[in-house]
Specification:
Number of strands: 11
Oligomer: single chain
Number of domains: 1
CATH topology: Immunoglobulin-like
Helix content: 10-25%
CATH class: Mainly Beta
Largest sheet: 5 strands, mixed
Structural class: alpha/beta
Order of helices and strands: HEEEEEEEEEEHHHHE
Mean pLDDT: 71
Strand order of the largest sheet: 3-9-8-5-6
Number of helices: 5
């Protein structure tokens, strides 16, 4: 249920990204980014839901536009009436800043993905995560204590919740609710579950769970790549090499401002 006593006056829409590989198994030609966009139109806007390894680095992934709306990456309004001070970094979802003027959708292989969020020092009563399906029906929501959670938090969609349906677009929002004010901060993004192709499935089966982030890296699958590396760091908190890889990963997609922030426990 929505927080009844809070009304957000400013909703700042973040960039929503599609990380779909330039070479889909069957549907998309690989010549140029423009061809990828044209191919999307020829398939009535429906992306191929089979994803395989076709690029070696995240930087080589060709983003494919799924909508014409524009958006601005970053957190919502901050000021004296807000629960985040002006001198703090903004509320920031850990999604790549590839194109700040197009509305895109990130893909995931997970039935219950994990969302990562940088939460600055704040005076919020709570944080609220909401996941909606393509019909705008709420499929999951959770209130989180965030007043003492400065750093990067993990929001895991529990396994006892309905699975994300393959090929369906979902939208999530994360907001901070401030005491004694109708003002708040909200960010949002969208996500689509896809199926791996047989080659990627075989690669994952032959790789230990702790090293799968490298496979996800080759495949350009952002959510799993981030989550697998975060789990590896949690299991090896003193491993400076892993922390360096984490920072390099965030820096490589424009998240420099939060790359050195602490990774907190799951929420």
């Amino acid at each position: 249920m929505y927080l009844q006593n809070f009304r957000f006056s400013i909703t700042l829409k973040t960039m929503v990204l599609t990380l779909v590989l330039g070479l889909f198994t069957t549907s998309f030609p690989s010549s140029t980014s423009a061809n990828s966009t044209n191919s999307a139109s020829s398939t009535n806007g429906k992306a191929d839901t089979t994803l395989g390894i076709s690029q070696n680095t995240l930087a080589n992934i060709t983003p494919r536009v799924e909508g014409g709306s524009t958006g601005t990456y970053g957190g919502g309004s901050r000021g004296q009436d807000n629960c985040i001070d002006e001198d703090q970094k903004p509320l920031t979802p850990l999604i790549p800043k590839i194109n700040q003027t197009q509305e895109l959708t990130l893909v995931t292989l997970a039935s219950h993905p994990t969302i990562y969020m940088y939460v600055p020092e704040n005076t919020a009563i709570a944080g609220e995560f909401i996941l909606k399906d393509s019909s705008q029906k709420i499929v999951y929501e959770k209130l989180l204590p965030v007043s003492n959670s400065q750093g990067i938090i993990r929001i895991k969609i529990p396994s006892n919740q309905p699975e994300l349906k393959v090929g369906e677009n979902y939208q999530w929002t994360f907001s901070l609710s401030c005491e004694g004010s109708g003002y708040g901060t909200i960010v949002q993004s969208s996500i689509k579950r896809v199926n791996p192709n047989p080659n990627l499935t075989q690669e994952l089966q032959q790789t230990s769970e702790s090293d799968r982030w490298l496979i996800y890296s080759d495949a350009g699958i952002w959510h799993e790549k981030l989550d697998a590396l975060a789990e590896k760091i949690s299991s090896n908190p003193n491993d400076q090499e892993l922390k360096s890889q984490w920072q390099n990963l965030l820096n490589s997609v424009g998240l420099n401002d939060v790359a050195t922030e602490p990774l907190n426990s799951s929420n």
